[in-house]
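Researcher: Last one for today. Full complex below.
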Amino acid sequence: MKAFEISSEPIDLQAFRQKLLDRSCGAYVQFDGWVRDHNEGQKVLRLEYEVYEPMAVKEGTRILDEARERFGISNAFAIHRSGLMELSEVAVVVAVSSPHRGEAFDACRYIIDQAKIRLPIWKKEYYESGKAEWVNCQRCARSNN
Amino acid sequence: MNVKVRYFAAFREATGCETETLATSAVSPAELFAECAKRHAGLASYSSSLVAINDEMAGWEATLKDGDEVLFFPPVAGG
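Model: Here's the assembly. Have a good evening.
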C-alpha cells in the first residue's frame, strides 16, 4: 500500500487501520467521504469520478508529505475512488496516526481540504431529473446545458 | 511548433475529444487555450481552469516548447 492511491475498486477500510497501527501512537483519526443523495437542492442518484491518475498520485503524495512535516504526525495514508459510484459508497478515505490526538485531527483536516482543491479529480453527479453535471463547472458550462 | 493538448471531464465533453496535436504559434498556455476555444465552440464558454505542462502544474504565462503536452483542467471537485 502506497501513501496515496487511486482505486477503481471498493476501499478496504480495515487495511488502513492495520497499516497505521503503531505502538508509539495514541491517536488514530480516519475521515471517510460518502456519496450523498443530494447537492445544491438536487436529488443525486449516483456519481462518477474522473481522475487523471499520474498527477493525482503525485499531488496527493505531496499533500501527505506536507501534512507529516507541518503537524509532526507519525503516518498518513489516503485513497480516492475513480469511476461510477452508488449512494453511501466510500469515495475517499484519509487516515492519520500520531502520538496524540490534536495533531492527528489537524493533519486529517488539512489533507482532505487540500485534496479537494488540488487533486486533478472531477465529479459528475447524475440527478433524479435525468440531468448530469460536472460539479463546480455549472457556471462556466451554463451555455452548454 | 507542435503541441499536444489534453482535455478532461467537462472540457473533453465540450470539445468532443480527449487529445489533439496542434501546430501553433501560441507562446503560452493562455494563448493556446484561446486558440482551442476558437477551434471548439463548446470550450468558449469556459473561463477558469488550471493548466499543467508535461504532468507538472504550470502558470498560464509559462513558455511553451515544441513537443509539450498541455493539460487543460476544468475546476476540480475531488472528495
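Chain B has a mean pLDDT of 94. The two ends of chain B are 38 Å apart (CA to CA).
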